[in-house]
Amino acid sequence: MSAGAAAGAALVSSAVSSRSKAAASPFTLGVASGSPWPDGFVIWTRLAPDPVAMDGQGGLIDAVDVVWEVSTDEVMGAIVARGQARADAASAHAVHVEVAGLRPGRPYWYRFTAQGEQSPVGRARTAPARGAPLSHLRLAIASCAHWETGWFSAYRHMAAEDPDLVFFLGDYIYEYGYAASRTDVVRRFDRPEECRTLADYRRRYALYRTDPDLQSLHATAPCLVTWDDHEVQNDYSADYSQIGTIPTAEFRTRRLAAYKAFYEHMPLRRSVVANLPEFRIYSRLDFGDLAQISVLDGRQYRSIQPCAVGNSRRGHVAPLTCTELHDPARSMLGQAQERWLYEGFRASRARWNLIAQDLLVAPMAQADSSGRPGAFTEGWSGYEMNRTRMLNAVASSRLRNPVFFGGDMHASFTTDLKANFDKPDSRTIGTEFIGAAVTSDPAGDSLAAAMPANPHIRYFDNRHHGYMSVNLTPGRMETRHRAVSDRRDPQATVSTVKAFAVETGRPGAQEA
Question: Across residues 189-208, what is the average pLDDT?
Fold first, then answer.
């Protein structure tokens, strides 16, 4: 036995000997990988023999030693990296391992051992070397998964497509208390109260992570993640609750708890929490010479929502006469993130530039409650000048093949991003795809009624639930809007309801 193997065997022996009296396996929440780079990635698990224990600790108190192993084959017969991590109560016994020293552009398999038990085996993937030729990248993209209103069969079908990378673009969880008045829910949340404390959010993530279809997806491919509002509270902005009477200091405490639970349950790098209380989740990844991926944070740094109505800061269609909509000082991303994004646009040499974020970028002409022309305050239309600056930066940097992806809308969209949205025949400078919700209730028909006034929206569908599947090559991107047959059916089938192609050098999507 080699010295390395002997050391690994000793680590496993140590982990086995520290087994607690917990009756259940500690790996009830599965495994995950994420944030791939050319010589490594993050691997994650959280020990939780009692996932929804009231204290949010998952049934454990004492720290536990966890052994991790990475192999070049799926039967874990060719171990190339191993080590030991400490899972403790301060992190809800979550483990984030940053594996390095691996070969670029290939799959690896990993597992954990703790308390005499082994985790399921997960598959990760390193990114290709920066600038290396890459012929193909396969993506799966999801958002808006409400536990109560449907089964996660969409995740099962995403895993079956064997993606290289998965995007989760917000509303991974919902913070709501369970819907006692609804008779059409398929399963209940663990508690009737809305999430407000760290223990609440930990239980909610743990509940989601017990879902076998979600576990299967995470074990299949690495992911990139950002958040939207429901990871904290519906329609919040930075330090501001949707309820105007709640003090910012009080809401900031709740937000900090929610962000901490998010980090504890996602395969994120430790740099995310290097400068607390900021959680730096916006990031940029290169996949060879094929794609640069920018992941944005549209919640933590944004200005307060515009055009409040009384004590409510909830999203609504405000009349265009509300001056806050057009205030250049207001930002969705914050000054530092805006600078970082535009610098990345100028420096990119990738064939395709993908921007993964949580919302609909394109404007949508709508009428307010009085029938006047208006804009929806919760999304990018509530931050009009930030959107203008961002799209101007796309144009001025001559960014190659920019494509934005988003969620939030509970409907599928394909849009042309225009140099001037006031002139429908102005130049198209980019393309945008918004995916249907995994399970959340669909958008209302008022959006469908607004489509004739929005010619840059090439496709809209609020009838289906599902996800997006993307095949990317140097010359072409094909995006499929995928729909499950019935969100209330755990054995739901899947089909493509519409597909679009973007050809390199030709902004705008065409039906495929």
Answer: 96
